[in-house]
């Protein structure tokens, strides 16, 4: 399973990259705004800065909602860097744009996916990735993880190449459950990635090893 970080914070991206397990980055307009990155020029520069840190797919989201503008915006984004993946919302105009991009060699991430039907139709259109939002489904008492299993099953039935990019991940169990079910990618906040590392028995064990070493060498 590939690990992406879900943030526009350059420091967090650097930290995750330094761990040596980072495969890519996803962003969205809310994550950009959280970092105070506003205005088209600044946003485009920020994508380029992210691409300089991580050598892997970087999702850049369109804010247009009609076909022609999505195409224009997506083409501009894709010209920024070879690793840019154009993130397109799961709406009918977006679906048509995904089809266009897939026929023209531009990689896409179909975002705001909340159902198996949406995932199926995005794969039919040729999306490179689809982003089911686990946490937001859990927030409304619907199982995000069950959706990952359902999409995996459907894609495997027909050998769809579209990658399942599990998004809106909130904690390490989401990541582990995604790995069990065969999600291709999990895009996670830095904290969820770091939390995978922790185990109290590791800390206790290391403490004892170091103390025993010190006793033998004193
Ligand atoms: O990037 C999309 C997704 O990961 C958003 O997550 O936590 O805002 O539901 P969240």
Q: What's the topology here?
A:
Layout lengths: L1 E5 L3 H9 L5 E3 L2 H6 L5 H14 L4 E4 L5 H14 L3 E6 L2 H12 L4 E6 L2 H10 L3 E4 L1 H6 L4 H15 L4 E4 L5 H10 L3 E4 L1 H6 L4 H17 L2
Parallel strand pairs: 1-2, 1-8, 2-3, 3-4, 4-5, 5-6, 6-7, 7-8
Helix pairs in contact: 4-5, 5-6, 6-8, 8-9
Largest sheet: 8 strands, parallel, barrel
Q: Note poorly predicted spans.
A: none
Helices, by number, come to 11
First and last CA, distance: 45 Å
Judged by helices, strands and strand pairing, the structural class is alpha/beta
Radius of gyration: 19 Å
Q: Can you describe this structure?
A:
This protein has about 220 residues and is α/β, with parallel strands linked by helices. Helix content is about 55%, strand content about 15%. The chain has 11 helices and 8 strands. Strands 1-2-3-4-5-6-7-8 form an 8-stranded parallel beta barrel, surrounded by 7 helices. The radius of gyration is 19 Å and the shape is globular. The model has no long low-confidence stretch (mean pLDDT about 95). The chain binds SN-glycerol-3-phosphate. The site of SN-glycerol-3-phosphate has 9 residues, from helix 7.
Which short descriptors sum up this protein?
single chain, binds SN-glycerol-3-phosphate, globular, 55% helix, eight-stranded parallel β-barrel, 11 helices, alpha/beta, 218 residues
């Amino acid at each position: 399973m590939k690990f992406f970080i879900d943030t526009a914070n350059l420091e967090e991206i650097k930290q995750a990259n330094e761990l040596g397990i980072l495969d890519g980055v996803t962003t969205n307009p809310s994550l950009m705004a959280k970092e105070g990155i506003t205005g088209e020029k600044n946003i485009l520069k920020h994508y380029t800065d992210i691409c300089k840190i991580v050598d892997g797919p970087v999702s850049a989201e369109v804010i247009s909602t009609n076909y022609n503008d999505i195409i224009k915006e997506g083409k501009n984004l894709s010209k920024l860097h070879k690793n840019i993946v154009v993130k397109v919302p799961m709406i009918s105009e977006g679906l048509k744009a995904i089809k266009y991009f897939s026929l023209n060699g531009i990689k896409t991430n179909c975002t705001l996916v909340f159902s198996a039907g949406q995932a199926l139709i995005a794969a039919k259109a040729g999306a490179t990735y689809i982003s089911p939002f686990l946490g937001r489904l859990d927030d409304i008492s619907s199982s995000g993880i069950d959706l990952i299993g359902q999409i995996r099953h459907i894609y495997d039935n027909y050998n769809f190449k579209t990658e399942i990019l599990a998004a809106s991940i909130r904690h390490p169990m989401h990541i582990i459950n995604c790995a069990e079910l065969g999600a291709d990618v999990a895009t996670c906040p830095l904290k969820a990635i770091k939390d995978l590392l922790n185990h109290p028995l590791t800390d206790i064990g290391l403490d004892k090893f170091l103390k025993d070493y010190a006793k033998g060498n004193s």
